[in-house]
Input
Amino acid sequence: MLLGGLEILIAKALLGFAIGAAVVTVVAISIAVIEGLFDKWRQKHVVNQDQQDQIGFLLNEGMDSGKYKRVQGVFNKRTKKVDDAWRIQSNQIDSDLKNEKVVIFD
Output
């Protein structure tokens, strides 16, 4: 009878250990996921020095075959270089931008 009680006690201890390990694992994974989310948010919302020196621009290249051609990008005022730029083609354009050759977004 004593041996049966000891076996039950050991089984309960092992079960408690397994449950505790599972809880610790879930908490550790949750913390890692939350830290990752905060890091992504911080990267998007905290302005670093390079971003402070950047301004957006839009160059209207005109119309070709019924399509408006534009270049949008990011200019770095400190380095005096274009950090990124891309071409856009569309069938229409905002009436406020239609007559503007260059638009600066500061």
